[in-house]
Design brief:
Blueprint lengths: L2 E3 L2 E3 L4 E4 L2 E4 L5 H20 L6 H17 L2 H4 L4 H19 L8 H6 L8 H15 L3 H8 L30 H14 L9 H11 L1
Antiparallel strand pairs: 1-2, 3-4
């Protein structure tokens, strides 16, 4: 396959790194997840060697500065990757929390996420979506977000017990379920059904909301 741009011939490659994110021809994000996994191994090893030296507060600080930053970088781009990829990163996150809490390797991790207010990476995409939505509301950029995500309020002609507040189009492909146009209104409808209002909510409170549903 040869693609030309003017008089120049573009090189066709299987993957390319743009602004720190690996894009592949299949958009599977496998290569980018492998890249993140490799990047966090060194700081995790550092924490492990000093688990008995650093206090919990310092270990949490190191987690957020040296490891969490890799998880959240451009997360809204690749965060809807496969569960297999998310599980691969979730295992590293669980290991970090066990190091932070200085507990055995097989210690249950759920209570550690709750205790330290750390969002599991397989729920991080929902948190980032809500932060983006709240920020748009706060800075009056909601119309841009509406256009980007296709958000549209439903106009119910009659009273319903559990009527959805936002219109959600049913995707025809598995890829459609990972799209912003499906993910954001579905998440907002779920919060509405549980009578959870996020308008003006702080990021700390959003974290608690996500942890309660994780």
């Amino acid at each position: 396959l040869q693609i030309n741009l003017g008089s120049s011939t573009l090189q066709v490659v299987k993957s390319v790194k743009i602004l720190g994110v690996y894009f592949t021809e299949s958009l599977s994000w496998n290569e980018h997840v492998d890249y993140i996994h490799k990047k966090v191994r060194k700081p995790i090893g550092l924490l492990c060697k000093n688990r008995d030296v650093f206090p919990t507060s310092v270990k949490l600080l190191l987690y957020y500065s040296l490891i969490y930053t890799h998880y959240v970088y451009c997360h809204l781009v690749w965060g809807q990757t496969t569960m297999q990829n998310l599980t691969k990163l979730l295992l590293t996150q669980k290991r970090v929390l066990r190091i932070v809490a200085n507990v055995p390797f097989m210690h249950p991790s759920r209570e550690l996420f709750l205790k330290h207010n750390v969002i599991p990476i397989d729920h991080l995409y929902k948190f980032r979506l809500l932060v983006m939505y709240n920020t748009a509301l706060k800075h009056n950029n909601i119309f841009f977000l509406f256009a980007l995500s296709g958000l549209a309020k439903l106009d119910h002609k009659y009273v319903t017990r559990h009527g959805e507040f936002w219109s959600v189009s049913v995707p025809r492909t598995n890829y459609g379920f990972t799209s912003l146009k499906y993910a954001l209104p579905s998440l907002l409808n779920k919060l509405e059904a549980n009578n959870v209002s996020i308008y003006g909510t702080s990021n700390r409170m959003l974290t608690k909301i996500i942890l309660q549903t994780a």
